[in-house]
User: What shape does this take?
Amino acid sequence: MPRSITDKVNLRDLNRQEMKEFFLSLGEKPFRADQVCRWVFAQGVTSFAEMTNLPKVLRDKLAEAAKLSQPTILTSQVSAKGDTRKYLFGLSDGNAVECVLMKHSYGNSVCVSTQVGCRMGCFFCASTINGLVRNLTPGEIYDQVMGIQRDTGERVSHIVIMGSGEPLDNYENVMKFLEIVNAEYALNIGYRHITLSTCGLVPKMLELAEKKLPITLAVSLHAPNDELRDQLVPMNRKYNIKQLLAACSEYIKITGRRITFEYALLADVNDSDRHARQLAERLKGLMCHVNLIPANPVEEKGFLRTPPERVESFRNYLEKANLNVTVRRELGTDIDAACGQLRRRFEK
Ligand code: SAH
Assistant: This one.
């Protein structure tokens, strides 16, 4: 009986070990798994017919037992300066996710989504407005990077896991994606070129620390006290700032890597000198870096971004307190680059 498309395993969801097991289950030699890994991950082929070093019978057998997810670009927008391109990828079940390419002097960086929607409920974020639809599989996360590499014909050198979704709420799939994207048989992107951003799922942060991957962990802090953070980042009601910063210290101790704190500046909400002082006090002594992000306005939410003079004043305050600070370069606000905005517009 032919298998239905839904029973078929998506080869882009398998790491090398699982690929070997899959080929053994088909009664094939393990070296075939290595050949196929290269086609699936390094070449990013979208059909079995392209696997030209496999015998035709094996290609037919694979087409019967397996499938390859397709990075389908539904739409894309380029920023006025041309340094940012935002993509909307269609998934096989009709859902869509966003992904952003940013061209930097040091290489091409891709910001991937890890979930369709999100259940974290952060106040200023468009991805969370209709809640979580589902987790992405490792292959669906991988397809975003590969799809952009194929679309541009240029190598992707850096990855930021900062698109829609909370990566630590889809932990196993994101860990497998990291393993694959870093692997020599795939894109060979160094862990030092990968940043993972979380709103603060403390137990998962500690689990991640134990893996000792030299990735950069970014933590979405956005407020210097619990009263405010409870409102902006609801995960704070579960793990408060004290618990979060304790986990960050532990993370730094275990991995030896500094943490980046993200702080979206919302006009008259979290951007006063008083907030800067509280923030500096809380982060004192932590091996960290603060990334200030003038918030991207989201129509439905009705907040304003902090004006540039206030951003400067906030930054100066932190610098005087000896914190390492950057203000995120303005990339792509003209193309709905704030999380979840392009998908929402497309669905309207
Ligand atoms: N769930 C993860 C990763 C996705 S969001 C996290 O919370 O870190 C990536 C970053 O963009 C987070 O720091 C998030 O708080 C921020 N963000 C979301 N909406 C934003 C907006 N409208 N303006 C500025 N930053 C925003």
The mean pLDDT is 93. The longest strand covers residues 96-104.
